[in-house]
Amino acid sequence: MDIYTIIFLALAVFIFLRLRSVLGQRTGSERPPYDRAAPTVVQRSQDNNNVAPMPGSVIDQPPMAPTAEPAPASDRWKGVAEPGTPLAQGLDAVFAQDSSFDPRHFLSGARSAYEMIVLAFANGDRRALKDLLSSEVYDSFEAAIKDREKHEQKTETRFVSIDKAEIVSAEARDRQIQLTVRFVSQMISVTRDKAGTIVDGNPDKVADITDIWTFARDSTSRDPNWKLVGTGSAH
Q1: H helix and E strand count, the chain
Q2: pLDDT tens digits for 23-33?
Q3: At residue 80, does pLDDT exceed 50?
Q4: Which domain holds residue 156?
């Protein structure tokens, strides 16, 4: 074997080792190649979640934890409803239709939705209201906004606190789930005319407000959002 053959062999080994170090070796744990024909899954960010502060959309259901063990029936509504009460029975009916239902998650979203809706109504924000309300409730709210605009009035509302949000009734009928919530809050609200004269409310007075609102959703729908379907107040 002459000197040139030895040189070429050494060079070939050197090139092979360099390529191996650069390209690596297959280990059996590589990711599959990107498939352009495969569908893309887009996840909503937390900032666009249904329980985010203004602006936002509607209350949604929490994602199910596949490994979580369901709570015993006796403890399922602890802190929300007493066992054997009509409310507990209504929540049982809701859970029977939607096993992902979590009353605490729902109430957290309901509190945010309550503030969002009140402020959107005060600001005349029709776009925000349309995503949060049923068509019937939206029509009622829009009529009030139009009347305010007709008289060239503006409403200023500021929340001081939301002291309580509690489920007072629950119902599951056919595919429809309805939950009624009592909100106890403190807010300052004043309505002024075009000249700035106060026509309703007091900018220096904190008012105690109790509202009874009903939210609903279709338990068989892939849309997890709840919408406001009824409003009332308690004095």
Answers
A1: 5, 5
A2: 444 444 333 33
A3: yes
A4: 84-233
